[in-house]
Amino acid sequence: xxxxxxxxxxxxxxxxxxxxxxxxxxxxxxxxxxxxxxxxxxxxxxxxxxxxxxxxxxxxxxxxxxxxxxxxxxxxxxxxxxxxxxxxxxxxxxxxxxxxxxxxxxxxxxxxxxxxxxxxxxxxxxxxxxxxxxxxxxxxxxxxx
Length: 145
What we know:
Layout: H1 3-6, H2 9-18, H3 25-36, H4 43-50, H5 59-71, E1 75-80, E2 83-88, E3 94-99, E4 105-109, E5 130-133, H6 136-141
Parallel strand pairs: 3-5
Antiparallel strand pairs: 1-2, 3-4
Helix pairs in contact: 3-4, 4-5
């Protein structure tokens, strides 16, 4: 999926405004990075990618913004092997593949109609499905694994 074409500035601004979030320069930069970057970045990766462009950006601002975006269901927080990564919530439901060697994360489409089991005593509001293995790069460079 090409996230870059789908999300222009007007769409991102409307997304924040609809969620009741003031679209500050730093929030817009973080949201744009999430919309444009494939690979499910960590908070530190987001900070590192933006700090040269926005020298007043702090790690605290990044963490607080990601928490706010998660709370307002603009993005999803994924935890893979103790590492928190971020993904836009507006993407179609999908599973994730996590490489056990390099830690790369990739989207995998879910089969149509995947649902939580019926007749249970709880309400399911999300399904998290992870596949783990070796990505093609690690598989070819570690042929003995």
